[in-house]
Design a protein that fits this description.
It contains 3 helices and 53 strands. The longest helix has 23 residues, at about 105-125. The protein is elongated, with a radius of gyration of 44 Å. The chain starts with 8 loop residues before the first strand and ends with a strand. Among the domains are: about 10-125, no CATH class; about 175-240, no CATH class; about 685-744, no CATH class. With about 750 residues, it is mainly beta. The protein has a 28-stranded parallel beta sheet that branches. It has a 5-stranded mixed beta sheet with strand order 11-12-13-15-14. Strands 1-7-3-4 form a 4-stranded antiparallel beta sheet, with helices on one face.
Length: about 750
């Protein structure tokens, strides 16, 4: 009998469901195998030696070619299976004097010894050994193990010795392979490390505080004392966080530090030093990372961000809290070169209700492509001030998912000074500490507190969608001065509730403003008009209000006043609760040319909306000599005066008023605001409208009243019905009081 020279181990990679595996070496008992199974993708571990999860085929035990085992549970594809000989290192045969000397006993005895030798050989193959040609390598010694120390050859090569980290010179092991470890930055500063070494801190102020970082030791140079530190020997530990600056590595984020301005200034300075400019979107940029914690910046920062694509990003919008009170938190752009890219993300910007009106979260000076994303606000002052003038402009700002409250101070939340491109989607912001008025109580939002404002320089293109605001003084405030162009503003699904003075306020003072669209918006102004436009000079045209709901106004729902306003459309809008503070106001008041009110619902009397019940006196009040307008397809409820649509104070030209009905389906009444004087005696007036003009004459002494030169009435207290396009006149000695009424 012989024993094969097969290795004393077999290795397999299992297929899905496999249970049978061969071993190719001899064992003498069924318990003389060590079986290891490493699940696919995991690291091998000798603790995985199995003892009960398989069965050794008893018929093949003792066979010099081996046998097989069967697992109780099928294996998974990719599992690593190792079957290793595990014969005990003992001798079970004991030959007796004059006893039997049988071949089978002798062979098994010798085979067992050979098998044990093969096991030792297998272990030796997995050990680090000297080559066969090496000499003088016997009798080597090694010291007892010491935790966290290195092993190196002794000088006389008689064995190995333990060496602490500090005794490994850079000429033996490169400095970048042996970082020195310190508990804190203070401990690091006390050291005298040589240039070229690396150091690691376990924390900034103390181990485990989240401020641990790696540093490279360099010769003496400038150090800010927050990210880079001067050591006791004059060398400098330079923080290694290229591309991602962690605020904790600069000692920030500890709430007990009253003012962390210098920490943040140091981070911005570092970002500027490693950032680029002039390449725009091609620059990877630098991230200033703000872990969860409280960061106090009561006076903001003074270092200006002047490199492309530098972003300040928090760990979470609820946990990464930056607290301010005065000054400007962050400024992008120095007004000299254009800074492209940047952003503020995943942060909570927190102020208190004593915040200064001069405080600003972010200023942009000749900067573009900025992103505000996933922010929470608490008592926020001015959130964004964009641009300085027509040269130092800002552009392309995107605001997404911004929620919270702002302080009740007299500045706009978004101040569009000079530039182009502002897009705000998804958000909800209201002014804190503003009491919602009831009845006739005044709204107490501070004058000047607007959601978005453009009042000095040109700004082109604003998009607001899926945003809710409330309790502002004026939600949207635009002042268009001479030489200024503020155009292309688009609002969709914009809810602007509980404003004081107005929802949308526009004042034209000689500049140009074109293309304003409000689609499916909700506008409320408890103390004024939801839509309030005034423009005596300039070019103001193309204003569209479609599908909007105009509720609860101190006076008018919509007011358009000024000859410079041109091309206004109010289409499919619903008006309710106008005249909260006055019974003499109209749902819509118009004193300009070229406009239309179509398919609207006007003056739904007494309908409660957002807590109020209010009622306008008139439906549409049309100013003196307004021309080229359409009032068509509207439905009106009876206003206080009983006259819903419209009121004409005198006759303009090119008017179309038709197909309007009351809520009960009857014809509407058209009535002038007040009784007026008749035309001069004997002088013709013309009905330029498309409907009949009803003339009610009361009192006076009328000799005759004519339609198209034909006398039809005389005396006192009579009515005339003047067809479209006809003329009418009166000859009187005492002028009557005349009321003009248009009727379909």
């Amino acid at each position: 009998m012989t024993i094969t020279n097969n290795p004393s181990r077999d290795e397999y990679t299992a297929t899905a469901g496999q249970v049978v595996f061969n071993y190719t070496f001899k064992i003498f008992n069924g318990d003389e195998l060590n079986v290891y199974v490493t699940p696919a993708g995991q690291t091998p571990n000798d603790n995985s030696d199995l003892t009960t999860d398989y069965v050794v085929d008893p018929a093949t035990v003792g066979d010099e070619d081996g046998g097989f085992i069967t697992f109780n549970t099928p294996l998974s594809a990719g599992d690593a299976v190792s079957i290793v000989s595990g014969i005990p290192y003992d001798r079970t045969v004991d030959y007796q004097q004059n006893g039997d000397f049988l071949p089978v006993t002798v062979n098994n005895d010798n085979d067992r010894q050979v098998a044990q030798i093969k096991q030792v050989l297998e272990l030796a193959r997995k050990a680090v050994v000297f080559g066969q040609a090496s000499q003088g390598t016997s009798g080597l010694t090694s010291e007892a193990p010491v935790a966290k120390q290195f092993i190196r050859w002794k000088d006389d090569l008689s064995g190995f010795e333990n060496v602490p980290l500090s005794e490994l010179p850079s000429d033996v092991v490169p400095a970048d392979a042996i970082p020195y470890v310190f508990n804190s930055v203070a401990d690091l500063i006390l050291s005298d490390l040589d240039s070229g070494f690396y150091a690691i801190t376990s924390g900034y102020y103390s181990a485990g505080d989240g401020g641990g970082a790696m540093y490279l030791i360099v010769p003496a140079q400038a150090a800010d004392g927050f990210g880079d530190h001067t050591l006791s020997n004059g060398n400098v530990a330079v923080l290694q966080d290229e591309g991602r600056i962690n605020a904790r590595h600069y000692g920030a984020g500890v709430s007990s530090i009253v003012d962390q301005i210098q920490n943040f200034n140091a981070m911005i300075e570092k970002a500027n030093s490693i950032g680029e400019t002039g390449a725009g979107a091609g620059v990877a940029g630098v991230t200033i990372f703000i872990p969860d914690g409280v960061y106090n910046l009561p006076n903001g920062t003074t270092e200006i961000i002047n490199r492309d694509n530098i972003q300040i990003v928090g760990e979470s919008s609820s946990g990464s809290v930056i607290s301010g009170n005065l000054g400007t938190l962050f400024t992008w752009g120095d007004g000299v070169s254009i800074v492209i890219g940047g952003g503020l993300k995943n942060l909570k910007l927190r102020y208190d209700n004593t915040v200064s009106a001069s405080a600003v979260c972010v200023k942009m000076d000749k900067a573009s492509r900025f992103v505000f994303e996933d922010l929470q606000l608490k008592y926020a002052p001015k959130l964004l001030e964009m641009g300085v003038d027509s040269v130092r402009f800002a552009s392309s700002i995107n605001v997404v998912n911004v929620y919270g409250t702002c302080a009740n101070i007299g500045v706009p939340l978004f101040d569009l000074v000079s530039g182009a491109g502002f897009d705000f989607s998804q958000g909800s912001i209201f002014v804190e500490d503003v009491v919602v008025p009831s009845g006739t109580d005044p709204h107490d939002a501070v004058s000047g507190r607007s959601f978005i404002s453009a009042t000095s320089e040109s700004w082109d293109t604003v998009k607001i969608s899926n945003v809710t605001t409330n309790r502002f003084w004026r939600s949207v405030n635009v002042v268009c001065n001479t030489g200024v162009n503020i155009s292309n503003w688009f609002f969709s699904n914009y809810v602007s509730d509980y404003n004081g003075d107005s929802g949308f306020r526009f004042q034209g003072l000689g500049g140009n403003a074109n293309n304003y669209f409000f689609d499916n918006c909700w506008l409320v102004a408890t103390d004024g008009a939801s839509i309030d436009m005034l423009a005596a000079t300039g070019l103001v045209s193309g204003f569209r209000f479609r599908g909007c709901k105009i509720f609860i106004n101190g006076n008018n729902g919509a007011k358009f006043n000024g000859v410079a306003i041109d091309d206004v459309t109010i289409d499919g809008c619903q008006f309710s609760g106008q005249g909260r503070l006055s019974t003499g106001d109209s749902v819509i008041m118009v004193d300009n040319n070229n406009w239309k009110v179509i398919n609207c619902t006007l003056g739904i009397d007494g309908q409660p909306s957002t807590g109020y019940i209010a009622q306008a006196r008139y439906g549409i009040q049309v100013g003196v000599n307004c021309s080229n307008y359409i009032i068509e397809g509207n439905t009106a409820d009876g206003t206080l005066s009983g006259y819903a649509l419209p009121t004409h104070t005198s006759g303009g030209k090119d008017r179309r008023v038709r197909a309007n009905t009351k809520i009960d389906g009857s014809d509407p009444e058209y009535f002038s605001m007040v009784a007026s004087a008749p035309p001069p005696t004997g002088v013709n007036e013309f009905n330029y409208s498309g409907v009949n003009l009803e003339i009610y004459a009361r009192g006076g002494t009328v000799v005759n009243a004519q339609i198209n030169g034909v006398t039809v009435r005389s005396g006192a207290d009579f009515n005339l019905s003047v067809p479209p396009g006809a003329s009418w006149s009166m000859v009187y000695s005492v002028a009557p009081v005349v009321v003009r009424q248009f009727r379909d």
